């Protein structure tokens, strides 16, 4: 069992935030308000999630588990697009479908096929694993989407030249597609490369703090990392394919006019 944290201990930990605020104030970074607001938002969000998960764990029913999963997926799909500098009609739906398809498929396979959790909707396993997969897939989808839309703008002349010489839309966009998928997978590959040597992952650390044997925590972490890798690849490939279908029409024409620049230029 992990050591319980009292409200006073939580308050003492909160005071550590002052280090960032003081540094920002002394160095005139102008981040004091952002640091305070981000800390308050994170604290409120986590406290609410703790209350909701406690209620879901007690119910032991698939409906609230699926409901929470869908809400998390909608928020992840929206977050994957929100910071993108370029968007096109239907990009939010594409992002949701990519995140939903890869995350639910791989979480389901992990719960039922690999870990063999019975019943599969046991919230203690389903919600945390889905949350980790969603967070990782969100990053891959966001990076892939940004890279693909940037490449079709940057290399527009090259792509249109290939199309003019008779190449199909898939052939003309092949370079942009592979670059986007590769970019989406970089974070999880970097994380896997240094895991155990430079960093100890959150799930493994949490299990050890909760009293699990290190060998058990390591095995869970290995399973999760392979799931995250597969989810990142599937999510990146899916959103890139969907963006490709939106920006290239069936007559093999590049439709960059469908892209809207969301960054305000001075």
UniProtKB/TrEMBL annotation:
Determine if Membrane is one of this entry's keywords. Answer: yes
Which key words are in the record? Membrane, Transmembrane, Transmembrane helix
Where does the sequence pass through the membrane? Answer: 6-27, 39-57, 63-81, 93-117, 123-145, 192-210, 222-244
A single Pfam family it belongs to is: UPF0014
According to the UniProt entry, where is the signal peptide?
Answer: none
Per the record, its GO cellular-component terms are: plasma membrane
Instruction: Name the InterPro entries for this protein.
Output: UPF0014_fam
Q: Where in the cell is it found?
A: Membrane
User: Does Transmembrane helix count among this protein's keywords?
Assistant: yes
Q: What is its main location?
A: membrane
Regarding the membrane, this protein is recorded as:
Multi-pass membrane protein
Q: Which PANTHER family match?
A: PROTEIN ALUMINUM SENSITIVE 3, UPF0014 INNER MEMBRANE PROTEIN YBBM-RELATED
Q: Which family does it belong to?
A: Belongs to the UPF0014 family.
Q: What is this protein called?
A: Iron export ABC transporter permease subunit FetB
